[in-house]
Amino acid sequence: MKKLILIALLTLALPARSQETKSLTLKEAINYALENKADAQKAKLKVENSTYQIQEVRSRALPHISANGTLTYNPILQTTVIDGASFGAPGTNIQAAFGQKWNSTAGIGLTQTLFDQSVFTGLKAARTTRAFYQINAQLTEEQIIERVANNYYGVYVQRQNLTVIDITYKNTVKVKNIIQGQYDNGLAKKIDLDRILVKISNISTQRQQVLNAVQLQENALKFYMGMPIATPIEIPQTEFEITPQAFTENPNTETRTEFQLLKKQEQLLEFQKKSVLAAYYPTLALSAGYNYIGQGPKIPWGAKPSDGVYWSDFSSIGLNLRVPIFSGFDTRSKVRKADVELRSIKADLTDTKLALDLAFANAKTQINNSISTINNQKSNVQLAQEVLSNTKNNYIQGLTSLTDMLDAENAFTEAQNNYTAALLDYKLAEIQLIKSKGELKTLLNN
What we know:
By secondary structure, this protein is α+β, with helices and mostly antiparallel strands. The chain is 61% helix and 15% strand. The protein has a single domain, classed as Outer membrane efflux proteins (OEP). The relative contact order is 0.12.
């Protein structure tokens, strides 16, 4: 027992095995999201559910068959007053009881719709509903791709900012070591050493803030991917590159998923109007039934004529015609309401087309501006690095002040951050351009 307790304590004392870091390209991140994100799964379930909706509407056009059975006990039989002339007693009335104490009926019934305009319209609408959910699933996938891509590049930028902070920290520590050596040899002032120590402390604080921003951005990415938050991830450096974009004339917005979805909604509203108009049409249905009835002074089940119980069958076949005449203007009001909804969605289609054209134009403008900014910031980073290197050499040789060197270092850090921010702006604009052309799924091929 002591050995078992010792083994258990040693097991608990062992450090937990760290979870393996998952390297993610943009394509892998998107594929993971499309497989695991709840939004994508729910959209697929709606497509599956639309199949059952079609079957549900189709069932209204198919025959309905049902079996029925009853057992009735009549403690007091109803009496009827009849003319006694039928029984040889003219001028008198006879009170007679009809029926038996026990009755049992078993049968089968069938109803078949022969004509119902709402059924035919509903079947067409159900098929359109399936197409609507298929387009909606496609739109959901595109929205997932867009969110994942935006947050993916957001993580990259935050990590780049962290890299800049780390490089700045290392360079500042080197300067601190130089000043420390000069101070120890009486060649530097204590205020210079204190200032560089304050600088290092500030950089450490900034690093913690950026580190928190990285964690928050990674958590957001994992959420939009449907990935467990505790999973460590890594984004390869090669994923963040400037690639040329083909600028064309305004793309055909009618091929965009958002526009197609509205068109399907318009079709559904048209079917809704036709379904309402179907209330003006007559309906015709066939009904048929076959039943078996047993009657007697005792429970008919298993009883025979010798027990006073008699069984007989009966059947019926009929046509049920319903012709609407006046509904208090209910149908007319519903038709006009459906017309208003149709005019409303037509206005949405016009506005959506305009919004999609605007998104394309804005994305092109942002791409051009971002490329120009990237080129300027890249040159600025190189220049700031040269200034910092020269200023460091001059400081070591005593030709410039610590203030100039710290200013040069701050300028270099700012230039690097501006360059990284310009890269992010470009990538976000690139995603919007791809989206405006209806080509978000091409990111799966990268």
